[in-house]
Write a structure and sequence with these properties.
mainly alpha
């Protein structure tokens, strides 16, 4: 019984942090919500992937299944909803350098356009 009060306080604080993180609103910029007026393909995304994703052990040859230099790997994570979740919603990928509104728009347009290779 002597530990019950600290455990209750800790549990309340932990729950508060989880709720605060889950309810954080991320408002998209005007640039990233612009209409998709051009076809964005995997080939179109190559320079962005090379700059932000395929570097330093992130999504390169060292990651095998998560090597985004291979179209089918990126498409798999797009189909699973992982790209949308991490890049567009949580905006925690890439972790080091945040994408611009235009770069986010390109990913959104690629997904909405059917995640085409070419």
């Amino acid at each position: 019984m002597r530990y019950s009060r600290p455990i209750i306080i800790f549990s309340f604080l932990a729950l508060s942090v989880v709720i605060a993180c889950k309810t954080k609103k991320i408002v998209p910029s005007a640039e990233e919500t612009k209409a998709c007026d051009e076809k964005v393909t995997y080939a179109t995304l190559q320079p962005l992937l090379a700059k932000s994703c395929n570097t330093g052990g992130c999504h390169d040859e060292s990651r095998r299944r998560m090597n985004f230099k291979i179209y089918s790997n990126l498409k798999h994570f797009g189909d699973e909803g992982e790209i949308k979740q991490h890049v567009l919603i949580q905006k925690n990928m890439p972790p080091r350098e945040k994408l611009t509104g235009e770069e986010l728009r390109q990913f959104r347009c690629w997904i909405e356009g059917g995640m085409l290779e070419k």
